[in-house]
Amino acid sequence: MGAMVAAPVAQERKVSAEAYALYLWRDTDDVTLIPPGTGPSPLTTEDDLSQDWDAGVGAEVIIDISNMEAIGASFMYVRHDAEFATNDVSEGLSSNWSFTAGPGTFVPDSSFTAATAALGDYETSLIGGEVSYFYRITPRVTLLIGPRVAVLDEDINLFSVDEGDFDPLSPGEPDGQIQIDIDNYLAGIQVGVEGRAQLLENLRITGSAKGGVYANYVEKDFHYENEASNVFDFDESEWDVAGIVQGDLELALEVAEGVELFVGGTAMYLLGVATGPGNVPEANTASEFTDLDNDDNVLYVGGRAGLRVSF
Questions:
Q1: How far apart are CA 100 and CA 105, in angstroms?
Q2: Which uninterrupted H or E stretch holds 32?
Q3: Is residue 1 within 8 Å of residue 56, measured between CB atoms?
Q4: Domain limits at 96?
Q5: Structural domain contains residue 17
Q6: Residue 233, CA distances (Å) to 66, 112, 138 in order
Q7: Share of the chain above pLDDT 90, in %
Q8: pLDDT for residue 94
Q9: Would 49 be classed as within a structural domain?
Q10: Which is more confidently placed, 110 or 160?
Q11: Which of the given ranges, 12-16, 41-45, 139-143, 226-230, has the highest pLDDT on average?
């Protein structure tokens, strides 16, 4: 999925296979997780989760079917984990904080407004694959088209504790908690173009761009509880339209006949997806707790390095 697509190679080599490691930074739309209250409490945003760089893997196989055509299949996976623990985040929070009470008939309580700390953890993963048909229109330019699928999984937990002397390594039982699990299932067709140039006899630079429109089936599971024994569980699902746009740049060095080492950069932008932070309630209303928000955007950008073998 994140692999640099390779143009059909010389006719004497029918197959190329590669494996690579990814190191990607992940960014999403700005979201306020905990609004500031009437007291000295700070604003807590998604940035406080520090979900930045993490590693992933990928692989691709391309088979020539003629001098001008090839078919290929690729796969990629990356996972990001983050957490935060902050003393006195909730000190002075006003009663309009979204966690103070549940929707509808829930009775307000001090689960969050009287807590001494707020904790959170946020886990995401992206797994995907694609099958492509390549057509070389010139020795340096190749077009591609084919189906692409991806699954974006989002899990976020936010909870408060009232522990007096707060120890982030041993927080005890949460006094109030919100758990959100979201899965985006994307499937669609993408088109793209690749250009390459031979810098030296054994050194090549390649750049590609591709994008598509995807059907996105989104599932959301939401759980809320507080110290007043109010518990609320909700699940929702719906179909929508999303997009994926990706660009890659690669430098490949042939170290032996049919063997290349490569390094490069990758940028991938997911549009119109649902994220965990984007579905944290921002107000104490039933719609905020039950609505499924799937208009967020996610950016992955970073580098990759790997080995390619042609035979």
A1: 13
A2: strand 32-34
A3: no
A4: 29-42+76-128+145-252+266-299
A5: no
A6: 56, 19, 57
A7: 52
A8: 35
A9: no
A10: 160
A11: 139-143
